[in-house]
Every structure is written in C-alpha cells, then in structure tokens.
Amino acid sequence: MWKFWKPQTETADWLVVGLGNPGAEYADTRHNVGYMVIDQLEGPEGLEGVVRMKPSTYMNSSGEDVAPRARKLGVPPERIIVCHDELDLPAGTVRIKRGGNENGHNGLKSITEHLGTRDYLRVRIGIGRPPQGTTVVDWVLSPVEGDISGQIALAAEAVRLITADGLAKAQNEIHSR
After folding, report:
1. What does DSSP say about strands 80-86 and 14-18: parallel, antiparallel, or unpaired?
2. What mean pLDDT is predicted for residues 87-103?
3. What are phi and psi of 70, to 5 degrees?
4. What DSSP character marks residue 42?
5. 26 is in an annotated binding site
6. Which residues are annotated as site, described as Discriminates between blocked and unblocked aminoacyl-tRNA (predicted)?
C-alpha cells in the first residue's frame, strides 16, 4: 500500500512556539505549560498560515530549534509567538506582550540569543512563585496542581486572537478577563 508524503510548508505567516522539556517525566510540569498550549491548538479548527512547534531541545536550549525554523519558514521575530510559564504572574493568569526582559527564564534567554532580538511576542502563562523553602528549579519542574485546562484554553485563545486580530486587540480581550 502506498502512503503519500506531503512536504512541510515552506513558508508561514506565524510561528507559534510552546516552551517545555521533552520527555514523559516533564509532561505535566509547570515548565511545560507552553507545550500544553500547542497541544490545545492542534484541534480540528486549525490556524491558517500558522506553524506550531514544540522545540525538541530542553528548555534552556530552545533557541537552537526556534531560530533556524523561523528562518527556514521566513517568519520575522515580530511574528513569532512564544507561549511560556511565568513566575511573576499568579497561577491562572494569562498575559500577552511584545519583547521585554527575559526575567531569568532560560528558554526565553536562549530564543533571544539565537534570534538576536527580544522583539517577539509572548503569551505568558502564570505559575506563581514557589512557596518558601522550594527552589525555583524544583517549582517549575514539579507537576501542576489542580485543573489548569481553563488557563491553557485561554492561552490558546490568546494565540488565535493575535494571529487573527493583532496584538492590541488580543491584549484588550485577554487582559480584561
């Protein structure tokens, strides 16, 4: 039986990146909420002109995968959306911004280094700060507590709004919730 192979898209309007760590041991951790958003975006409705990716590298080397893929697709940094965990936002919160500091997030640092700019879009998924006595590393690599499906769905909606209506409209809609 023949199987037909369809080549991957050579160009795209947007590149949506979900940050996380590969492997089953990290699947349900706070650091992998970006991967969870990509999974949410894999639904049947699709996104026209949008390539979604989960870097195959570990979080701290994300830029090694993201920058070459963006170049290959012809997507400029201002049309790259990175979905990531954010310590500086309370759990349950989703915020959108363009550029800015990486605030110690090694995945963002790697992407900035490899793109040569901070001028990409970010869907920030709040995970809150660790409780006293817990290190940041232990916190981000520990499993999420409770049901975060609503937060992941909101982050996926943020991506859809950015690609359809632009940053400002998406911010107004998402930040009002």
Report:
1. parallel
2. 93
3. -60, -45
4. T
5. yes
6. 21
Domain boundaries, the chain: 14-176
Is 120 labelled a binding residue? no
Do residues 37 and 152 touch, judged by C-beta distance below 8 A? yes
Nearest to 85 by CA among 150, 157, 18: 18
Q: In this structure, are strands 14-18 and 50-53 parallel, antiparallel, or unpaired?
A: parallel
Second CATH level (architecture) for the domain 14-176: 3-Layer(aba) Sandwich (3.40)
In this structure, the dihedral spanned by the alpha carbons of residues 97, 98, 100 and 103, taken in order and rounded to 10 degrees, is 50
Binding residue per annotation — 103? no
**172 known member of a binding site:** no
The catalytic position among 31, 84, 105, 114 is 31
pLDDT tens string 52-72: 999 999 999 999 999 999 999
Instruction: With residue 131 as reference, give the H or E element that holds it.
Output: none
Please check whether residue 79 is in contact with residue 15, taking contact to mean a CB–CB distance below 8 angstroms: yes
Determine how many CB atoms are found less than 10 A away from the CB of residue 92.
14
105 annotated active-site: no
121-126/94-98 β-pairing: antiparallel
d(Cα 92, Cα 89) in Å, to the nearest integer?
8
Go through 57-71 and write b for each residue having 16 or more CB atoms within 10 A of its CB, e for each that does not: bbbebbbbbbbebbe
Encoding tokens for residue 69?
């893929």
Residue found under tokens 């039986």 = 1
